[in-house]
Write a structure and sequence with these properties.
The complex is a heterodimer of chains A (about 160) and B (about 290). Chain A is an all-alpha fold. Chain A has one domain. In chain A, helix 1 packs across helix 2. Chain A starts with a helix and ends with a helix. The model of chain A has no long low-confidence stretch (mean pLDDT about 85). Chain B is an all-alpha fold and about 290 residues long. Chain B has one domain. Chain B is built from 9 helices and 2 strands. In chain B, strands 1-2 form a two-stranded antiparallel ribbon. In chain B, strand 1 and strand 2 form a beta hairpin. In chain B, helix 1 packs across helix 8, helix 4 runs antiparallel to helix 9 and helix 8 packs antiparallel against helix 9. Classes of the chains: A mainly alpha (about 160), B mainly alpha (about 290). Chain B: GO terms for molecular function: proton-transporting ATP synthase activity, rotational mechanism. Chain B: One of its GO terms (biological process) is proton motive force-driven plasma membrane ATP synthesis. Chain B: Its main location: membrane.
Chain lengths: ~160, ~290
């Protein structure tokens, strides 16, 4: 059986249809497919971008937290230092004040002692005079012997 | 002139009959015990094409940007899946895969109708004569859906699935109960008893008509399409370039063949779609209670 004209014409008609489909139908199908591909690619890239942004934000937040923590540590350190300084200063002030008070007290005591000594000296002088009076059994002129007695007082 | 026309008409009748004859294998006594080898072969071919294409794409499918083939198959799958989700409310996971298979398989089988009607039979006959056989007995019909056996077989498979889905979704009692109580409902025991017979008859007719109409619709369309291709081919049958009438007839054949092939693209797609949608509708009706 040889191929006859009928088959040839059928073949031509078939290829004509194929051509028509290629020219008219196929582009639409391919366009729809490519549209879908593009949509999927776009969606995927957007998801990727969002994920990256999220990671960036996370990193930024972690960074901020670290920085804030470091700052806080610094502040605390500084505060500690300041507190130590204040305590030191207070201690020094107290020492100075105490020294001063001690000096004042010492001076006061010295003055009191001096005064007491003077008083005692006066009383001793008086006593000495009275004793001498009794010893001499006679009235001595206080005024005549005052220089003598004063000398005695300074000697005591 | 008269003898020539008579010879031509005999030739034409022989041609048409030859084209409408299946490649058959007799496996027993009687016409029933016959196997249409060509139908089986091209059905298996279509099924293998479908399986290889879909399984390969499914295996290689990527969650990233899909290739063009994967894209096309995804579009088919999504389309059918959407249709099923809209229509089918019962519980069954096999409906969408079943319908995709029906659609693709019927489409691929129908698609063979677009090939030049003489191409494969001619190749087959050539092979026959090369092997030393008589090419007059080299029968071949390549469109499986233009064979009532194929379409009826598919329709019966769908029929069985309809019953299965019905029983699975409603339970045995309700499924067979509806044979007697639907579609006509009545209040009271007397009315119910009266309506048992009409309900049963209507249901039986309905169930029997479905596979018949489903198979005949597809078969009729494909058979008629094939027949028209054959009739178009007859225009230049046995003519030679020396005869003047060959030229206008040849042109007419070309145009008619072109037009019918182009139109047939719509028909094969539409018939595949209709077969699928009707299966879906029947299955949905079976899954829903009345």
């Amino acid at each position: 059986m040889i191929p006859n004209l009928t088959l040839v014409i059928q073949g031509l008609a078939f290829f004509a249809v194929v051509l028509m489909v290629m020219k008219l139908g196929w582009p639409h199908i391919i366009a729809a497919i490519e549209d879908r591909q593009n949509k999927i690619a776009e969606g995927l890239s957007q998801a990727e971008k969002a994920r990256k942004e999220l990671a960036d934000a996370d990193a930024r937040v972690a960074d901020e937290i670290r920085k804030a923590r470091a700052e806080a540590m610094q502040i605390i350190d500084k505060a500690h230092q300041q507190a130590a300084q204040i305590v030191d200063k207070a201690r020094q002030d107290a020492i100075v004040e105490a020294t001063k008070q001690k000096a004042i007290a010492a001076a006061d005591i010295e003055a009191q002692a001096h005064k007491a000594r003077e008083e005692l000296r006066g009383k001793v002088a008086a006593l000495a005079v009275a004793g001498a009076e009794k010893i001499l059994k006679r009235e001595i002129d206080a005024n005549a012997h005052k220089s003598l007695i004063d000398q005695l007082v300074t000697e005591i | 002139m008269a003898t020539e026309e008579a010879a031509g008409s005999v030739n034409m009748t022989e041609y048409i009959q030859h084209h409408l004859h299946h490649l058959q294998l007799s496996v027993g006594d009687g016409a029933f015990m016959t196997i249409n080898l060509d139908t089986l072969f091209f059905t298996v071919l279509a099924a293998l094409t479908f399986l290889v294409l879909f399984v390969r794409v499914a295996r290689r499918s990527t969650a990233g940007v899909p290739g063009k083939l994967q894209c096309a198959i995804e579009m088919v799958v999504l389309f059918v899946d959407g249709l099923v989700k809209e229509t089918f409310h019962g519980k069954s996971r096999m409906i969408a895969p079943l319908l995709i298979t029906i659609f693709c398989l019927v489409f691929l089988m129908n698609f063979l109708d677009l090939l030049p009607i003489d191409l494969l039979p001619w190749a087959w006959a050539s092979g026959h004569s090369l092997a030393g056989h008589d090419p007059a007995h080299a029968y071949l019909r390549i469109v499986p859906t233009a064979d009532l056996n194929t379409t009826l077989g598919m329709a019966l498979a769908v029929f069985l699935l309809i019953q299965y889905v019905g029983i699975k979704n409603k339970g045995v009692g309700k499924f067979f109960g509806e044979f007697l109580t639907a579609p006509f409902h009545a209040e009271g025991i007397v009315g119910k008893v009266l309506l048992v017979l009409p309900n049963l008859l209507l249901r039986l007719i309905e169930e029997c008509v479905r596979p018949v109409s489903l198979s005949l619709r597809l078969f009729g369309n494909m058979y008629a399409g094939e027949l028209i291709f054959i009739l178009i081919a007859v225009m230049t049958l046995g003519s030679s370039l020396g005869t003047f009438s060959t030229w206008p007839l040849g042109l007419a054949q070309f145009l008619a063949d072109f037009g019918w092939t182009a139109f047939h693209i719509l028909i094969i797609t539409l018939q595949a779609f209709i077969f699928m949608v009707l299966s879906l509708v029947y299955l949905s009706m079976a899954a829903e209670s009345h």
